[in-house]
Amino acid sequence: MHLLYSPAPLPYPAENPKGATVPVAERSAGWVYYGDPHAERPASESTRRPRRGPALNVVMFLATCYTMTLAGAWAAGSDLSFATRNLASGLSYSICLVAILGAHEMGHYLACRYYGVDASLPYFIPSYPIPMGTFGAFIRIREPIPDRKVLFDIGVAGPLAGFVVAVPVLIYGLMTAQPVPFTGPIGSVDEPLLLTWLTALFGPELPEGSTLVLAGPIMAGYVGCMATAFNLFPIGQLDGGHICFAVSGRLHRAASLVSLFCFIALGLFVFPGWLFLATLLIMIGPKHPPLRDESRGVSRTRVLIAVAALIILVICFIPRPFLTGEM
Length: 327
What we know:
Elements: E1 3-5, H1 24-29, H2 55-77, H3 80-85, H4 91-115, E2 123-126, E3 134-141, H5 148-176, E4 180-181, H6 193-202, E5 210-211, H7 216-231, H8 239-247, H9 249-269, H10 273-284, H11 300-316
Parallel strand pairs: 1-3
Antiparallel strand pairs: 2-3, 4-5
């Protein structure tokens, strides 16, 4: 998840202008704003939490760089004992994937800074080296977002920035890749439409009985496509959920339920890993927290950008990103 709300409790009264009482749980969670959403609040009523230093961000980033480098070396050498002795062989993967994930998160972060929304620096999440070395990254948004326009721009900035970096990474990987003998179905995975198209345009000639290894920049672009597609699903507080909610709250509710059903079906019939992600999304909740002002819609241009984001989801989606057996 790349955008997580975590606002502080608000000092506003318990009743709204229409006299309806808001439950204490909702007030304490910090999701409800009353009065003029554009009115300047006194400094004593600021809801922004004291800023924490970047030490944790740096430690998590360095740990993620290490596990991603191990993952890249494992992909190049096929066992972790090789990977620990040959870290340099994994640098092309880790550097390219850091560029993709970093562009994604900085897209969110810079959009937050542009609109004056309080947000943390990116947190990178390390994981066991096999198969990717990371669970992605996220930023924390510490206050409710003002309106649909701001929510849309913050939500869409990350996937677009990551996609713009992933495409040249894939092209570079394909142009420098060397075919290897194809030994059978073990280790073969599904590929996104984007990779299929770019391979036809920029990939090397493949002699009979040869294939390309999923390693280095190609693997980084592959993982970047997977992360981009997952986050563009219109569910809850995923990037696609923010985009969808900005366009229409009613559409967001329906799209969240349909998308969750698709994840469960994919997990049952295609790749079991989708069941884990579906469970995680259900635990987080398919609902989207309200905005300070939901009365104003988004422009037609932003609706067209939302359609473009949907197209990016389709061409980057990988139904079966990894095999359940031997990799």
